[in-house]
Amino acid sequence: MDTPHTPPTERHNHPETSPIGEHPAGIVTSLDTLETKSHLARNEMDDPHALDSDTEFRHSGWRSARTKIRTRLERDVASPSRLTRFDECGSRAWVFQSAEKSDRFKVRASYCHDRFCKPCARAKAMTIATNLGDYLRGKTVRLITLTLKSSHDDLSDQITRIYRCFSRLRRSKFWKLHITGGAAFFEVTLSTDTKLWHPHLHIIVEGRYVPQHTLAHTWREITGDSHIVDVRAIDQQRGVAEYVCKYVGSPFPSDVYHDDDLLSEAMTAISGRRTCLTFAAWRGLKLTALPKTDEWQPVAPLNELRALAKSGDAWAIGILTACKPSLTITPDQSYAWAYEENEPYTEDP
Predict the structure, then answer these.
(1) Does the pLDDT value for residue 25 go beyond 60?
(2) Which of 101, 109, 261, 340 sits most deeply, having the most CB atoms within 10 A of its CB?
């Protein structure tokens, strides 16, 4: 690998308004065992459509959908301050290098944490999946899915209804006899044929064996018209945690982004709603608690690294190549995101 480029240290001081709250003493210039895949990075930097800001870099995978979300936020939902946070999500970005694993890099920036921001919602889902997976280790759990019969009712009314019915179910003798605790996650799908909403609750539960036919009968008595339920034993705790938590990152289907009216209805219906909850013995489980991480050292502002990479600098190309696969799925500005099992966030419906 070429000799690392060393930008002037005085250029790389965090502004006083840095969301990170850290002030670097200098610049990290050693990549140690990091290999520079310059042919990959060069191709990206030579792309005439290459992004030209930190914010666009973070949101490159869903630009068209993000524009639609922003329009709906401005028209139907958001305050000016919320719009500003949404617009600036990913700005003031710095690249950091792990002090323990020199080939690991991450980006810290200002994030909006808006539930309709896909990278931020995905990051929250990753955090919840990690914490839930750790909590499930060694436990005997089952996955229950509850559905409502499709109807022409507004989505907001259907969401209210399924949560009220689930509350009644948790108060039933049947539920209390079989379930000691759990966590529920909301999902809504859209029928491609009828264009009707179809809300679900995916629930991880701990307790005794749950007879499906009895659960279906109880659910029918509570809802009045819905009896489709599913119960299955779980032997891969972390896998089921990741499965249910994906709905936190994407509560409605990508088809919705192609219809302005459906998108507006979905955003209005979900605003202010909890898409996940814990209950009974699991109440108090801190699903969004941030994990402990390694020590990290500041390298350089992201926009400067990108500018250097465009000019062919091997040092900058190597760093961006190392961190790009996880750039748009940052869990939070205060801890590492570089989970090796994660795929790049590149969805753009």
Answers:
(1) no
(2) 109
163-188 per-position pLDDT tens digit: 999 999 999 999 999 999 999 999 99
Q: Is residue 199 a part of any domain in this protein?
A: yes
Q: Mean pLDDT across the stretch 79-91? A: 91
- For 334, phi then psi, to 5°, come to -100, 5
In a domain, 241, yes or no: yes
Rounded to whole angstroms, how far apart are CA atoms 249 and 133? 16
C-alpha dihedral (157, 160, 162, 163), degrees to nearest 10: 180
**In this structure, is residue 171 part of a structural domain?**
yes
Closest CA to 134 of 280, 316, 248, 285: 285
Closest to 180 in 3D by CA, of 279, 73, 105: 279
Nearest to 112 by CA among 266, 349, 330, 339: 330
Residue 187's domain comprises: 128-280
Report residue 248 as tokens: 């936190």
Hey, is 135 helix, strand or coil? helix
Q: How many domains does the chain have?
A: 1
The pTM (predicted TM-score) of the whole model is 0.74
Report how far residue 205's alpha carbon sits from residue 209's, in angstroms, rounded to the nearest whole number.
Answer: 10
**Has residue 37 got a pLDDT over 70?**
no
Q: Calculate the alpha carbon distances from 63 to 89, 123, 134, 236, 252 in Å.
A: 13, 17, 34, 35, 17
HSE toward the beta carbon, residue 306, CA cutoff 13 A: 22
| 328 in Cβ contact with 59 (< 8 Å) | yes
CATH number of the domain within which 160 lies:
3.30.70.1120
Return the closest-CA partner of residue 217 out of 228, 205, 204: 228
Q: What letter does residue 335 receive in the DSSP assignment?
A: B
Answer yes or no: is 101 within a domain: no
Count H helices, E strands: the chain? 12, 8
pLDDT exceeds cutoff 70 at 325: no
